[in-house]
Amino acid sequence: MDVLLLIVAHFAMALAAPVLVSWWGRRAYLVLAAAPASAMVWALAHTGAVMRGDGPVELVEWVPGLQLSLAFRLDTLSWLMVVLVGGIGALVLVYSSAYFSATAGGLGRFGAVLVAFAGTMLGLVVADNLLLLYTFWELTTVFSYLLIGHYADRKASRRAAMQAIIITTAGGLAMLVGLILIGADAGTYRLSEIIANPPHGPAIPVAAALILLGAATKSALIPVHFWLPAAMAAPTPVSAYLHAAAMVKAGVYLVARFAPAYAELTVWQVMITVLGCGTLLLGGYRALRQHDLKLILAFGTVSQLGLIVLLVGLGTKAAALAGLAMIGAHAMFKAALFLAVGVIDTATGTRDLRRLSGVGRALPATALAAGLATASMIGLPPFAGYVAKEAALEALQHDVGGWVGWVVLGAVVVGSGFTVAYGLRLYWGAFATKRSVTHPATPAGEPEPTGPGVPPAITRPSWLLVWPSLVLGILGLAAALLPGLGEDLLSPYADTYPVGEPSHLTLWAGFTPTLALTAVILGGGALLFWARRPVERFQDTLRTGPEADLVYRRFMRRLDDFSADITAVTQRGSLPVYLAGILIVFVALGGTALVTGTSLPTSVRAWDSPGQLIAAGVIVVAAILTVRARRRLKAVVLLGISGYGIAVLYLLHGAPDLALTQVLVETITVVVFVLVLRRLPAYFSDRPLPASRWLRLALALAVGITVAGLTLVAPGARIHLPQSLDFAEEAYSFGGGENIVNVVLVDIRAWDTMGEIAVLLVAATGVASLIFLQRRSGDIHRVSDLDADSEGEGEGVRVWGGGDDNKMAALRRRGVAAPAPDEQRAITGSRAWLRAERTLAPQRRSVIFEVVTRLLFPTLIVFAVYLLFAGHNAPGGGFAAGLVVGIALIVRYLAGGRYELGEAAPVHPGLLLGSGLFLSAGVGLLALILGGEALQSVIIDLKIPLIGTLHVVTSLFFDLGVFLVVVGLVLDVLRSLGAEIDRQGEATGADDLASTPGGNRAGNPAEGATR
Amino acid sequence: MSPDVSPDMSPNLVLVVVIAVLVTTGVYLLLERSLSRVLIGIILLGNGINLSFLVAGGAAGGAPIVGTTPEGEMSDPLPQAMVLTAIVITLGMTAFLLALAYRSWQLHRHDEVQDDVEDRRIARIAARDEPIFEDADADMAKLDLERDAAEARDEIGLSGAATTPSEGPR
């Protein structure tokens, strides 16, 4: 569990980082450094076991269905990477604790992300499962994105971060495909098993190429190398860690991991050779003309990554050993150099080598550290870089044959020459005292002069900044002085490569051709450095071809354009066009199936009963007239007529429940329509598009004929017996009810009903939120509130009073105007027909309607209760009962206005909806608790004295929940589309507007619905 | 009920005609722009589809209530239950679309479904081949790596008044 614990510790530290930083400021980084340091110590503690080949192995199942397990193992390659990642991570964090200003922004986030990155990098290099490796791989990409974009307020920073994540993620996805191809072929995702026994199916060359693609993007190989120099927008510690030592080495790690298995594939050889040599040369060449120290290092890193990938990817033991040594040497010298550049930046405020002068004299310790690192980088003996490069040259001379071998060797020699040149350029640029840059003495108090040619003042940096790079520089020397130790440590992995002879790491191999090559490299590089001005000029005149990042940006721009074109074609933004698209597909698919896959029924019946014919005639005429109607109200009334006709058809078909529901729903629909239509113009607006009308008609006919055809063949196309054959018996014996439809709703298919009432709840909430714009629903309008409000005002509210005030209205009003408060209360009492009738404008009152309502309301409620309880055995049930209560509420509202509605239902609809859903779900849960299935019915027979046995089925409570939801829906609709629209209309004077000729002529709801 | 009793599966022509008319009129209105007409179309279409459920379920029969109708003469209860929920859902949707229509009227004084403004904008841009958003990052001018690098300054602690020991000659 060690590895898992270590990784978890990293993440825990990352989570704690913001808190620690808020307590201790930047010094908290010293604590954070403990996490990567512990990883390094763990690896070092297992050195002996790793060298013997039995390093720690861990396996915890994670997602067995995906073969994704938490598998880890520590072998030589992983050991090397863990030591580098942990050690340099700790040093960089220590460095950061002094590097950033104490008041710098985002310190907590920076520390957290850096530690989290160290944790994922640790996981990446010890993962022994392909999918786990991929997971860590993408996590490093994400953390790298956050770190490059650390200064999120800078455009260049954001651009570099975005570019890096797009490129590395694209490569990562390609790699994922490759990993899955390999895993599927091998039948396992355990990395160690695959490498030990690699599959060689036909898909493997493709998989290898895809994996190399992923590695190439991560390690900034051509042609996507440009993200790495741009990523120098990140803070310098990040550059030192991610973009020199750790993350870019992930690609190298992947190549090294798969090389023993697949290095002999042709595609692998070609890709490694081309990418490696090309990157090595291009990076070195570009580094020769940079002026920013970080950019020299960035292009240098690109170049070195090319070299390392080449070495570990070639597939021979000797090259691999050189490559592994190079990984270690490069991590040490490049991180040291980045850290030293950071010191210079801190001390002088610039990284431009044209402005720096005399830094070496002012900062001798930094100069020493950088000198050691540079010597290692350019391959001077006796430094680690020299040992690695000697081994590389030796290996390339012997192992790679043919002209390819000579080309590769030549590329490495030239690339190493470039390395010498830019290494010298870096050291000279950073530390030399240059004649072209003079030191004017800046008098105190005067602003410091800036610009090229003027050296900045040099301050003394903290030792915390200097010693990390010094440690790395000295380590580079120490490792080289003990080449045998390095060989012992690294050769176990190099020996797993299948080809070639084992080789050695050595400081002195005698006078060999390799020594001559080294001399050529050093001499040539020195010459290039000496001729740096001509080289720069030469590069400036030669820069004609398109650069890779420009190509990338053009490509991204084209991608944007392309997606805009696609969007413009497919997303027309027009509802009719979208619907027409869907319907055309329906006609095409349904019609094809109809023509090719079905046969006409052998027998048809014209009708079941003559009543059907009459109802059908009414429906057809009403539907066609609905389409032709130009007046909204007319269309709605005709719609209602066809709806009632449908109810008749249901009844004749033997579906009394449907008929009942259809009648109730149709009634409510018409009322709700009218409630809204009173605000809308009386006529539909004219669309001046006769051509499209014919098109629409054609499509409508096509759809209609298709549906009719499907309906015609559907009954005959049945190949199974109806599901419902046994429903009758099941309903009676298990559901405890005689009305099968109701039992289906509340028991057999109760889940459907549950989903449906949830939809109703959402719809009701949607209606309320569209009308009550700021709250779930408004206040409940109670007469008592009105009394309290209107004490001093005399007249009070007159609901529906706007619009047609006339002299008669004034006369009528006198009779009820301003009754004394106690008189009001008396009216509120039993003598009035309706409690809130006096809140209505007098001209809107109808005594007959009030009387009828007074009688009708209790009757409807009793009927609803009957339907609710009888529904299990006779037509009815929660839906019908809820709709009847809804109609009762509508009647109260229409007769007495919104205050009457408040008196009739003094609850918030949300309460009804919520408790209804809760009740239904609760019943389901209850059955679960009692040991049955969810929503199973339980039949309870209660013996009550005198009355006899009461037969109670628990699904009644489910139905009660349905009932409450339906009542809540109707109440919500009434309160929104009725009461709230009334209130808004009165508040804004919309009723007056409604009666102006230019506006919309709309009646009031009483007119629309009751007369 | 024994499984060899196959229900009468011949379709009812009157109902098929009604379905055809309802679907045709419904689709015709559905393709309109006025939200209230669209809604009327949806209701007509829904009624037609509900009827087609019944036809697909087989012939007419007695009410599916045990004790009232002998089992063999019952109409199929399963499509009825489905249609019942569909009817009530349609009520909820009607209310919602009416609220939308009202809101549209409140904001724009009409209830027509307009084209999506953003989609229109993208179509215009695509037609003219313009960049989708205006940003200096998207321009094709050469980016100056060196200039960007020079501007990339870290928020560093200048250690002129260092409290920690510092290197260099004193």
From TrEMBL, chain B:
This is Na(+)/H(+) antiporter subunit C. It is a multi-pass membrane protein. GO terms for cellular component: plasma membrane. The chain crosses the membrane at residues 12-31, 38-61, 81-102. NCBIfam families: PRK07946.1. PANTHER family: ANTIPORTER SUBUNIT MNHC2-RELATED. Belongs to the CPA3 antiporters (TC 2.A.63) subunit C family. It is found in: Cell membrane. InterPro entries: CPA3_antiporter_subunitC, NUOK/Mnh_C1-like. Its main location: membrane. Keywords: Cell membrane, Membrane, Transmembrane, Transmembrane helix. It comes from Pengzhenrongella frigida. It comes from the Bacteria.
